[in-house]
Write a structure and sequence with these properties.
3 domains, mainly alpha, 16 helices, 0% strand
Length: 287
């Protein structure tokens, strides 16, 4: 028997539906494709299914294709199909090749599946779009190249499809989209860059509003506190500005950022007529 036939037989023998077997690891649609031998599982997925079926993973491996991460690349033809926009051809070639179960193969499968889903959605082929997006989700999680951007767009496509195919799924897909978007780290970098630009152009109110809504990772807390303090100072909230700038100074290690913080603190203390502290920060900047 093929790998897919073995999985199906073991599931049925245990009286499990596809929905009961998949749990929260993969989707029912992807399990169906594995059982029909139209998708090749990674070892991680196979071990998960084997565990839920109470069988050793080795039971399914005889005469079956699986990823051990050591296969040669062999993806040139697939890359060509992807570059030429022949996404269905790319996916079909990957399904037929052992190279499709390497980390690079999984990445290409997720990209091709997402592109195919995007095209199907634009053409109104909603069921195809949903299946391709589901495949993009599965392959995106199999190798080492997981992409939160793929996760986000896949969830958005599924949400858009659900509006016409099954509205009851919209909230789940929308929540998955929002969760993925919240993990796109460079959004925070953009927010800080945007706020810094707004402050430089005198748009202090907009900068303050942006910073108040910003969730910043720990690595960027020093810069965030500096910009937040600067915006508060421009808004006349002197005490809050001083607290934010002192926090920025405590967190900062970059010399160029410290110079900006010290200059801002000098301005704060000067406005408060605390000239001794203003002088101290002016001296720090000159050292």
């Amino acid at each position: 028997m093929t790998l897919g036939q073995k999985v199906r037989e073991a599931r049925i023998a245990r009286g499990l539906t596809q929905k009961q077997l998949v749990g929260d690891q993969i989707t029912r649609n992807m399990l169906s494709r594995i059982e029909n031998d139209s998708a090749t599982p990674s070892m991680r997925t196979l071990e998960y299914l084997a565990g839920r079926l109470g069988l050793p993973a080795g039971y399914f491996l005889s005469d079956s294709r699986w990823s051990d991460g050591t296969s040669p690349d062999g993806l040139d033809e697939m890359r060509r199909a992807y570059r030429e926009g022949r996404f269905a051809d790319c996916i079909a070639l990957l399904e037929e090749s052992r190279s499709g179960t390497t980390d690079e193969g999984y990445l290409l499968r997720s990209l091709a599946s997402l592109s195919a889903a995007r095209s199907a959605l634009a053409e109104g082929r909603l069921e195809d779009a949903r299946q391709y997006a589901d495949a993009a989700d599965y392959y995106n999680r199999q190798g080492m190249y997981y992409s939160v951007e793929i996760d986000a767009e896949m969830s958005l496509i599924l949400a858009e499809c659900s509006l016409q195919l099954d509205p009851s799924e919209f909230e789940t897909n929308a929540a998955d989209f929002e969760k993925a978007v919240s993990r796109i780290r460079f959004q925070d970098r953009y927010a800080l860059a945007r706020a810094e630009y707004l402050l430089s152009t005198g748009e202090n109110e907009l900068a303050l509003r942006l910073l108040k809504d910003c969730t910043v990772p720990e690595a960027a807390q020093a810069k965030y506190s500096y910009l937040f303090g600067t915006a508060l100072f421009a808004a006349g909230e002197d005490d809050a500005a001083l607290t934010a700038l002192q926090n920025a100074e405590a967190l900062a290690s970059d010399e160029s950022l410290l110079q900006k913080i010290w200059k801002a603190l000098e301005g704060c203390y000067t406005k408060r007529e605390d000239y001794r502290m203003a002088y101290e920060y002016a001296a720090k900047r000159l050292k």
